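To: structure subgroup
Subject: Chain for Friday's discussion

All,

I'm putting the inputs and outputs inline so they're searchable in the archive.
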Amino acid sequence: MKIVIIGAGFTGVQLAKRLINEKNDVMLIDNDELTVKHASNRLDCTVLQADGNNLETLESAGIDKADALVCVTDNDEINMITCSLVDAVYPKLLKIARVRNYAYYVNTTVAAKHHAETFAGNHRPLYGIDYMIHPDVEAAEAIVQAVEHGAITEVLTFGHSQYELTRINVEKHSKLDGILVKNIRSLTDKKFLLVYIESEEESMIPSGDTVIRAGNALGVLTTRNNVTDLLELCGAKIEKLKKVALVGAGRIGTIVANRIMNKNKTSLFKKFFGAGITKKIVQDFVIVDSDEALCKAASERYPGAAVFCADITDEGFIEEEGLNTFDLVICATHNHELNMVLAAYIESLGVGKTVALVSHSAFGKIARKLGVDVTIPLRDTVVDSIMSHLRGKTITSIHTVSSGDFEIVECELPSASKVIGKTLKDIASPGEFLLLLIKKAGTDSFLIPTGDTAMTVGDHLVLITRTGNKKVLERFSGTN
């Protein structure tokens, strides 16, 4: 594929790296001289210093022969206008735009929903954007999902499936320390699948003879009801979250607060906040930000919450308000480095659990070493979302895990797939990929496949493989 990327910031560079590693033809455009120079030194592709919203520039870059245009500049309007401009001349070109303004995202979503029949015809998508990526929404949903699970781990869900992929740390003196993977079944009757193992040295798809050690992180696929038991098996347990503080009342913080304070969704938190859920959330939910305007807006939007306009790095404030006694502190400011350091610092003061919004997985790994319980890498979610749209219509979703070493891929099996009619034991390739879940065509529920499970057209698969392993994806998608 040939992909033109507008915006050579961190997200643009990370996206370009992934695409280049998969042998795609990438053109990166940015109008800032230093940014272009930095990107040129790091990437094996053409990096052009120019205005990406100029059609003449894009045509000289070969937009007429490109397969996709991805706009990830820091300016929402430029991303949207560029897509609209290109759509007017090249409507068949796939166009993806990152849009941070929540109002744009909501208005576009609502308009598309209300006029679904109109846009299902020959009309072009709104603003000429085929896919609008809103990183803040995805990051906020990941934070809420972590809170729902007691803020003890990062969790990946699959649509309406009962199965979840949970990252669990193996604690010292746990029953798993020193055991072979093939012997875990003797310790529990809970149904699960060990998907990957992280150690200081490497990340791997394990075999039966792999030894689990204290300090390893396990990617475990199981049903939600089994998570607590498996956590205990690893030496951890979920505590009730009765007192929660949110640091940051900006875009992401607002979405998180909306989810937590929304009366229609409080059932998600009953398990952790206890009985009298409506009363409990508004009494024990605190919002902190140093920006007066954001605090005023938060106070008006959430009259039941305690909102403080203060510097969270002030130790006096932490002690005065007793934040060190809270069960959970969510650090979701726009300063990602501050989130990481602040979460580690607050946890050292006695806070039960911490969640930190960080810029990318590398910082997430550092934050976990500092003691932060859950990290949400914002920019990784953006790149994953874009990659899922660039991989073709049969690939419905991509999520990187284990600091970006592996991809969890969801796909629909087309008739051209090379695995159609074969069983899992016929196509298995130990260490290269692992098939986690399958939803048979015409059914509504996911199942963990067995060796005798046959692949048929229309099956929805969830599998894990090394990031950028095109050979595996092509085998399932039927592309070359």
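Points worth raising on Friday:
The chain has a mean pLDDT of 86.
The first helix runs from residue 10 to 21.

D.
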